[in-house]
Design goal:
By secondary structure, this protein is of the alpha+beta class. Helices cover 48% and strands 19% of the residues. The strands form two sheets. Strands 5-4-3-8-7-6 form a six-stranded antiparallel sheet. It has a two-stranded antiparallel ribbon with strand order 1-2.
Length: 267
């Protein structure tokens, strides 16, 4: 074999080995992320490789502070280097950009209007909207300020707030009646917010507009804080969650998918 062919083969083998090492290092990080900590033997057994290979990779990861060893138990866990990398992600993530394809999928699936909202100055502000094929809505909700107590998205935000912060906002904005069905009692609202926190979703039944129902779920970020809300709304004559319970399942799945794109991981 010519020398050039030998060099090419060596380079190819080296590149293949390098890729394999990267794959294995990532697998180790996944194991530590899942289990919290693990020893060399446990990791080697799960990966199906020799302990010396795992030890070598762990030492390399420890050198860049991606992992660290617990001196008391001799096991490894994720290190502060991971935090440095993770800290740079949220600033680069755009909630609207990450959520857009999921909103469109949900609108097509539900055949209704889907909105993405954030909390701003005591109001729920819709920052994006997708229309389903059967949607009768012509109103553009994007940019509009909607009251927290009368909307499904607003109730999601209120349920996630500490009690003192929630009290402050409600004291400032009040509980005005938008329709005869709007909740204007603080006690009744607090009771409903307990259900929202327990069930993981909020409802609004003709509380903002007569003839308009809505469902909403939270969107979480990498530290499990609520940073947004995704909702489905439609005319009350056909949008009844008691009759179409699968809407809640679809909405929850969409909220989780957006949350995962924002760095959220379920524990």
């Amino acid at each position: 074999m010519a020398r050039n062919d030998l060099d090419a083969q060596k380079n190819a083998n080296g590149q293949a080995g390098g890729v394999q090492s990267v794959d294995r290092a990532l697998q180790i990080l996944e194991i530590l992320s899942r289990d919290g900590h693990a020893g060399v033997s446990d990791i080697a057994e799960e990966m199906g490789v020799h302990k010396s290979t795992v030890f070598r990779l762990l030492e390399s990861l420890a050198g860049s502070e991606m992992v660290q060893q617990n001196s008391g138990r001799g096991k490894y866990q994720l290190g502060f280097g991971i935090l440095r990398l993770a800290a740079s992600i949220p600033a680069r993530l755009s909630l609207v950009r990450e959520a857009r394809p999921i909103l469109e999928d949900l609108a097509h699936q539900s055949k209704e209007t889907v909105n993405l909202a954030v909390l701003r100055s005591g109001y729920a502000v819709n920052v994006d909207q997708a229309l389903g094929p059967s949607s009768l809505a012509t109103h553009d909700w994007v940019g509009g300020l909607t009251p927290l107590h009368a909307t499904s998205s607003g109730k999601v935000f209120l349920a996630a707030l500490p009690a003192d912060e929630r009290r402050k906002i409600l004291d400032e904005v009040g509980l005005s009646a938008r329709t005869p069905r709007t909740i204007t009692s603080r006690e009744a609202l607090e009771k409903q917010l307990l259900d929202v926190a327990h069930n993981g979703y909020a409802e609004s039944r003709e509380e903002l507009e007569i003839g308009l129902n809505a469902l909403a779920v939270p969107v979480y970020n990498h530290v499990a804080a609520v940073v947004g809300s995704v909702s489905i709304s439609g005319p009350a004559f056909r949008f009844d969650t008691d009759k179409v319970p699968e809407l809640i399942t679809s909405l929850r799945e969409a909220g989780l998918r957006i949350s995962e794109k924002m760095g959220y991981t379920q524990r």
